[in-house]
Amino acid sequence: MPAGPDTSVKITEPYARMVARDAYFWAWPLVNIYNRRLAFRQAPRVGLMNGVLPFAPLNALSMLHDYIEPKQRWVACPNQDVVYGAAIAALDETPVVVQVPDFGERFWVYQVVDLRTDGFAELGSMYGTQPGFYVLARADWQGETPRGITKVFRAPTGTAFVVPRVFQDDTAEDRQAVQDLIGGIDVYPLAEFDGTMKRHDWRQLPRLGSPMSDSGEGETRWVFPETFFDQVPQVLKDTPPLPGEEARYAQVLAAIAAAEKDPTLKQAMSDEAEKADTDLIGPLLQFRNWGQQLPHHWSSISNSAAFGTDYFTRTAVAKSNILVNAPNETKYYYQDLDASGARLNGARRYAVTFARDQTPPVDGFWSLTLYDDHHFFVPNEIKRYSLGTKNKSLQSNPDGSLTIYVQADPPPEARRGNWLPAPKGADFSLYMRAYWPKAAILDGSWTPPPVQRAA
């Protein structure tokens, strides 16, 4: 049988549109990550983009030294539970070394994903990872592994995204204590490995400009319908097909080849990409439109960072909260609605009450974060964007239960420590994270309590 379509055959515009619409949906996350790689390539040196976001040349790492600033717009659904880092490795150019210092008893995890946002390396507290040096390499790398390397993880794609996350509680003392630990985090080309742990003071990074347009309230735009099919061939070259995807790849590449010879077809495919961006991708920003449906209108997923051929879930996550950890690393719960099914809105007050001993069962920690309708932090007078294990202000009720008050106006003084500020008169979402979840979360026997409307 031939490997794919006969490219000498004339195709119709409706067929080209059909292929374009389908391909735009399943390749959207791949192009998204690829364009982030192109942006990192423009970093002049290791620093902080706009002074708030880790930004580094390819095959290098930048690290925050505190929680991420609320005003960043590069990645939707950030959190203020951990200190973040970021590196994009061009494994088609070189393997890279990933340094793991000794974090002691502190929770940590390095997210390591390929161009599909599927994980391919296990590095974190939940894996019992030992301090040392680890290598990320493309699957076909045939080089020699130097002495002193603990393990080599092989990626199916030429692009890898590395995102360290290190827990920090909400105190000045812990902000200081974490500095020595994160100073040993690093990523660099294998040729620079000398067996010694490189150290950094991440508080001393320069401020860098952004190569992207970051205006607007939503996430920085990473996928552009008008250039999408110009990029797809290179993106697919970096991303070998999964078993069974060969025909899918051949179909879209044949349609693109035909469009290169016919301006009418090329315009039709671009038009269809624009429609798909609005009709198919746009609604996936809203959590209520996808996910496994749980009690009280919460939703979740169980295949994060292991999407495989689940194109719908991968694209939904990429649109709404890209770069999520594997379920055994972090379990995510999404909420747009109150217990009655009405949209969460700051014109009303809400209460989320965990029964005694029923906060999320974790070996790490948990948090509840509030986002605006674009999935970013909501400015508020007390600069509080989440509540959970990190907060020393939380007070339990007399019966041992714990109530978090979600509202725009301050509650009575006695409840202020449990207040999660909401936007005045505007829609918002709640997002629960359970880091290093226990079995009750992973098997579904524990789910979050309802978001009750309060008086």
TrEMBL record:
Checking InterPro entries in the record gives:
DUF1214, DUF1214_C_sf, DUF1254, DUF1254_sf
Could you read off the lineage of the organism from its UniProt record? Bacteria, Pseudomonadati, Pseudomonadota, Alphaproteobacteria, Hyphomicrobiales
Residue ranges of domain DUF1254 in the record: 59-189
Task: Report the protein name in the record.
Answer: DUF1254 domain-containing protein
Q: Which residues form the DUF1214 domain?
A: 330-438
Q: Which Pfam families match?
A: DUF1214 (PF06742), DUF1254 (PF06863)
